[in-house]
Amino acid sequence: AERLDKDYVWHPFTQMRDWLAEPQLVIVAGEGVRLIDADGNMYYDGVSSLWLNVHGHRKEAIDRAIIDQLGRIAHTTMLGLISQPAAELAAELAAIAPPGLAKVFYSDSGSTAVEIAVKMAYQYWQLKGVATKRRFVTLANAYHGDTIGSVSVGGIDLFHRIFAPLLFPTVQAPSPSCRHCRLAGDPKRCGMACLAAMEDILARDHGEIAAVVMEPLVQGAAGMLTHPPGYLKGVRELTKRYGVLLIVDEVATGFGRTGRMFACEHEGVSPDIMTVAKGITAGYLPLAATLTTTEVFEAFLGSHTEQKTFFHGHSYTGNPLACAAALANLRVFREEKVLAGLPAKIAAAREQLDALRLLAHVGDVRQCGLMIGIELVQDRAGGVPYPAEAAMGARVCRHARRYGLIIRPLGDVVILMPPLASTAAEIGEMTAIVRRAIDEVTG
Ligand code: PMP
């Protein structure tokens, strides 16, 4: 596999040799929260196979559900047809989603779910006869995927720069990241300048704005940048006041990642459109969904010739195998009371992370449920970052791999996203490996 990989495979972000140690690791199996390579070595899956895996690998209940579905049908189009698992899953998603989200549009990745949300919001206003509402408010530091539409609503310069001529312009609001706000940490001083900036934009431009697009509570791909409590709720209130749709991207945060089924629940928020993917099949098969309200859906009911339809649909939409996996995923959540078990795991992680905070080269530790970012700095007192060419985050991840933990860097932020199925003891072991790797690389 290693030779074939070298000769033929183009990896996401092109090989990433700077942080993936040579030789290439070939994963042949998974077992619970661990991955097994071709030489039989075991590694903790510390990023849940890119923030996807929820209940561990080879979860019997999910394996069985997929095999059972295979015995019936693997795939059929959803163009005018429906499969039993796709119909059942839509009903279950509507039942567990924040109130009001009653219609489910399937796709196959987080990026396409966002792409769909954007097209949906745009066309909604066109169908309502408000042709001027065609722009989007986005947040600096946001990440929503890699298609042209989802990059357009993103805010990470590195992903934007090269494609800038292809992207549609947005109105960018400041990132609500407390890390980059000098007023953070003191609720009295905070006063949420980020929310005031959002209000200024909406008060000024609402006649042109179709929707605000945001990740709830935390900007994951930007390095787990957590937001001040109340920001999400505040944006919901503002969007309602100014007649703008709210699109919340729960692709990373959905399915228990933040301690609740959806991050919106922490602030009692119901968006107009919500995107989910990643954990929806517990990391088994590609599937995504864009959920919306009956109000938005009904605007699209009518004849095709009048353009009253949503011009979007993928070949693998609502794939029955993936939907069967998702149904099994939700069954495991219910039967094993996964959400009820999370507070103890999140608290265990917090306790371990508090010790990391004291290290000389750890500038910040951010945690939102089981989404964890550990930021490395040259000098904690002065907050001085390492030079980019030192690739400290990448080096820590390489060292961690030697000790049996797969994690990833986002710049100099080391990302730990253990599967929800990890025990408190396993999370402790993962954190201990991170600490050892940081000590070695920075010592
Ligand atoms: N939105 C968010 C918030 C994400 O974190 C990601 C992926 N990291 C995406 C969208 C894109 O999802 P996908 O990789 O499945 O296209």
What's the short story on this structure?
Pyridoxal 5'-phosphate binds at residues 110-111, 249, 314-315. With 443 residues, the protein is an alpha/beta fold.
Walk me through what this model shows.
- The modification N6-(pyridoxal phosphate)lysine is found at residue 278.
- Keywords: Aminotransferase, Biotin biosynthesis, Cytoplasm, Pyridoxal phosphate, S-adenosyl-L-methionine, Transferase.
- This protein has 443 residues and is an alpha/beta fold.
- The chain folds into two domains: 2-55 and 338-442, Aspartate Aminotransferase, domain 1, CATH 3.90.1150.10; 65-335, Type I PLP-dependent aspartate aminotransferase-like (Major domain) (Aspartate Aminotransferase, domain 2, 3-Layer(aba) Sandwich), CATH 3.40.640.
- 36% of the residues lie in helices and 16% in strands.
- A hairpin with a 5-residue loop joins strand 8 (218-219) and strand 9.
- Helix 3 (60-70) packs antiparallel against helix 12, helix 4 packs across helix 12 (320-335) and helix 13 (338-356) packs parallel to helix 15 (424-442).
- The longest helix has 19 residues, at 338-356.
- The two termini are 36 Å apart.
- It binds 4'-deoxy-4'-aminopyridoxal-5'-phosphate.
- The site of 4'-deoxy-4'-aminopyridoxal-5'-phosphate has 14 residues, from helix 5.
Keyword list:
Aspartate Aminotransferase, domain 1; single chain; alpha/beta; 17 strands; about 450 residues; seven-stranded mixed β-sheet; Aspartate Aminotransferase, domain 2; binds 4'-deoxy-4'-aminopyridoxal-5'-phosphate; Adenosylmethionine-8-amino-7-oxononanoate aminotransferase
